[in-house]
Write a structure and sequence with these properties.
about 400 residues, alpha/beta, 8-stranded mixed beta sheet, 6-stranded mixed beta sheet
């Protein structure tokens, strides 16, 4: 029996998202989530899928305290085992871990050993909210199944191809090098998957097309992909830079930080919290859910209307900028929760951009579908695509390819 299954783990500070996939046919066997780890109200939701061929009896929910990540992964293992897909299965080829920050060292998927794990720990200062949880998930999974490859797939890796002039900030070079200050980019697995899927939608290879990918969720980022290779992206040293997001400010004059400290008396931690958790759509109108923002704006709410207009204005600027960076654009692809589902965002973002070759088909754009599709007008010079992202499949594919050669 050839081992072809990959368990994908996305470990957060108090949660674990997981999927089990069979890479022989790229089918999804089970999905689940453990949330509120360490609390009395912990919750595990597990769903074996039809592809599994197991009599799991549909979605199951377990409520009650789950003390830590080790207990969480053991609970996940028990749920999978109940469906005949336990971690001890000889069909399990690898565990793929989402790791947010790979710095400049990790530019491709990497089999995790003690040295690699130590390096991921060393990168915690660059991603203090994410890498510690990623490390914990890796440690627990290695303890449970140390005999199979554990593979780290890094959010930053896809963007490591940016030319140095795009990755560098124009600050003192020695200081930048000493503290690893540069643009890394994030959502890389999504940008990689969507740029390739867009090329496929156009009937071409990734090497033949230039794509602007707009990953629009609560976190949002844009990338310019030339011939399958990222040449620029909107997020920087951290996920704070770039587009207006649900709770993050995006691009900001750095002197705002000094002003808030000197004039407002805010501490570094208070400013950090303000810009990351209390800004963006939430900061401007009190809602970070685009559905609520659109509803309120439609009812004439001025704060929501301004927040939406600011969101769209920033999005247009990046589309224009990346058109200039690429020189020739074959497609603009919208993905993630907002990008896939909010037709009003796509319509507003591309309104007035016919001069760049971007023209929507209003009827096609208004249709909701789980399938990749084109929503551009017939004959438009630049294709507009809506491509549901699949970061778990991308992580599984990269991990499986690495361990099987």
């Amino acid at each position: 029996m050839t081992a072809s299954r990959v368990l994908v783990l996305n470990s957060g500070s108090s949660s674990v998202k997981y999927q089990l996939l069979d890479m022989a046919d790229r089918s999804r066997l089970a999905v689940g989530l453990v949330e509120r780890i360490g609390e009395e109200t912990s919750r595990l939701v597990h769903e074996p899928l039809a592809d599994a061929g197991a009599g799991g009896g549909g979605k199951r929910e377990r409520l009650g305290p789950i003390a830590d990540h080790e207990a969480a992964l053991k609970a996940v293992a028990a749920e999978l085992a109940a469906d005949g897909m336990g971690l001890d299965s000889p069909e399990l080829a690898a565990v793929g871990h989402r790791v947010v920050h790979g710095g400049t060292r990790f530019t491709r998927p990497t089999v995790i050993d003690d040295e690699v794990l130590a390096e991921i720990r060393n990168l915690i200062p660059l991603a203090p909210l994410h890498n510690p949880a990623n490390v914990t998930g890796i440690e627990v999974a290695r303890a449970l199944r140390g005999d199979i490859p554990q593979v780290a797939v890094f959010d930053t890796a896809f963007h490591s191809t940016m030319p140095e002039y795009a990755a560098r900030y124009a600050i003192d070079a020695a200081t930048a090098d000493k503290y690893s200050v540069r643009r890394y980019g994030f959502h890389g697995t999504s940008h990689a998957y969507v740029s390739r899927a867009t090329a496929e939608l156009l009937g071409k290879t990734p090497e033949e097309v230039n794509v602007i990918v707009l990953h629009l969720g609560n976190g949002a980022s844009a990338s310019a992909v030339r011939g399958g290779v990222c040449v620029d992206t909107s997020m920087g040293l951290t996920p704070l830079e770039g587009l207006v997001m649900g709770t993050r400010s995006g691009d900001l004059d750095p002197a705002v930080v000094f002003h808030l400290a000197r004039v407002g008396g805010l501490s570094v931690d208070e400013i950090d919290s303000l810009l990351n958790k209390k800004s963006g759509l939430l900061g401007m109108c009190g809602d970070n859910d685009m559905r609520e923002v659109l509803r309120r704006a439609g009812e004439g709410d001025e704060a929501a209307s301004l927040a939406f207009a600011t969101y769209i204005h920033r999005l247009k600027k990046y589309i224009g900028a990346y058109t200039a960076v690429l020189g020739r654009v074959d497609a603009v692809a919208f993905t993630a929760g907002v990008g896939e589902n909010a037709h009003q965002v796509r319509e507003a973002a591309l309104d007035g951009l016919a001069g760049l070759g971007l023209v929507l088909d209003p009827e096609a754009n208004a249709v909701r579908s789980p399938e990749p599709r084109l929503v551009s007008a017939e004959g438009a010079r630049v294709a507009v695509a809506v491509v549901p992202t699949d970061e778990e499949l991308e992580i599984a594919a990269q991990a499986y390819e690495l361990v099987t050669g």
